Every structure is written in structure tokens, then in C-alpha cells.
């Protein structure tokens, strides 16, 4: 299955898997992938899957056009693993999961070394390592854990600027999200707005370091 990594100003905003045969991209609410910046036309681009299962990218009705790997797109083009599609202020990086993805795409969601892969029969208990010196663990027993320096938070993070982020639990899956106007979280060194977490991922918020642990 193919995926798109949507970035703006070299910051990963989100990742989406491509399930549908046609995926529309633009500023209008009805698009499958909505990009809100005014540099994006209401109906800007479209991905469509051909009979062989490959995705092609094509311009729809855009003002500024589309660039594929820095070249302006003049006709529909078949996408290959690692291709970069520029849509206004955004860069959409295409990844074929069956192919050997480029190092740059792998780095966007790469877990830390020696990531623990859970076996189905094992416990689903998890925690956040909040102090490596004394191995202090904050157990993730609730659906949401809030980090920040203002208001009601679960883990307070000192910072000169307003800071707020949350970890959400959905079954055995964990997601982290920056809740300020600009990204305030790094996962394994990558600045993100939101990302799925893996065990042993290193999370940096406001200069503090946390690690997602299986407990």
C-alpha cells in the first residue's frame, strides 16, 4: 500500500495511506486531502490508480501548477517510491511500502534502535519514562495524557513559550500531537505536528526528553 507524507516548511504535518482509486487534493473541504494554505487551489491535484495498481499524479484546476521532483508537471505522471510532489507551500512525499523506501522517508517515522515489537499475547501496559536518572515511569492508563506548562496538565514541562502536546491511546496504538500553533514535539529527532508512536521512541518536548516504554 502507498502512503503520502505531507510536509510544510520541512515539518511533517501528517502521514496518510492511499486506499482509494482516486484521491483529490486541494483547499476545498470536499477534497480527500485538504491543504488549507492559500497557495493551494480549491481543486488542485488528483492521484488516480491505474489498472496495474500504480498511482499517477495530475493537475486539476490549479493556479500555480504542480511540481514533481522540482519539475513542473505538464501531463499525468506515474509516481515512484520517494517522489516529491509540490502543491503550493506543501511537499507530498510518495512512498510505496512494498518498495525499499529512501532513507529520508524512513527517517520521518523511524523508531529508535532496538524498538520492541509486541507479541499479540503479551500485556498492553505502557508508560512514559519521565526521568532516566531514577527510571521514573508515568503509567499510560488513560486515553489521553497532556504535556504542557499552562493550565491542567498531566506532565508539566517548563518552557518560556506556551507549550502543549498530548499522547492519545487507541487500543494498543499511541499517537502524539502538538497542540500549539507551531510544532513543539520531536520524535526521534524529527519535528512533527502529529505521529504514531512505537515503543522506545524518544520524545522531546520543551527541551525535556521522554521515552515510550512497554511496562
- Percentage of residues assigned to helices: under 10%
| Strand order within the widest beta sheet | 2-1-11-10-7-8
Q: What is the CATH T-level topology of the largest domain?
A: Tumour Suppressor Smad4
Shape: elongated
How confident overall, as mean pLDDT?
A: 81
Distance between the termini: 32 Å
The largest β sheet comes out as:
6 strands, antiparallel
The ordered H/E elements are: EEEEEEEEEEEHEEEEEEEEEEE
The total domain count is 2
- CATH structural architecture of the largest domain: Sandwich
Beta-strand proportion:
over 45%
CATH class of the largest domain: Mainly Beta
Task: Compute the number of helices.
Answer: 1
Oligomeric state of this protein: single chain
* Tally of DSSP β-strands: 22
Contiguous uncertain segments of 5+ residues: 98-123
**Structural class, from helix and strand content?**
mainly beta
Radius of gyration: 19 Å
Written account of the structure:
The chain is built from 1 helix and 22 strands. The chain has 215 residues and is an all-beta fold. It has 2 domains: 2-96, Tumour Suppressor Smad4 (Sandwich), CATH 2.60.200.20; 127-213, Tumour Suppressor Smad4 (Sandwich). The strands form 4 sheets. Strands 2-1-11-10-7-8 form a 6-stranded antiparallel sheet, with no helix packed on it. A 6-stranded antiparallel sheet has the order 13-12-22-21-18-19, with no helix packed on it. The chain has a 5-stranded mixed sheet with strand order 4-3-5-6-9, with no helix packed on it. The chain is elongated, with a radius of gyration of 19 Å. The two termini are 32 Å apart.
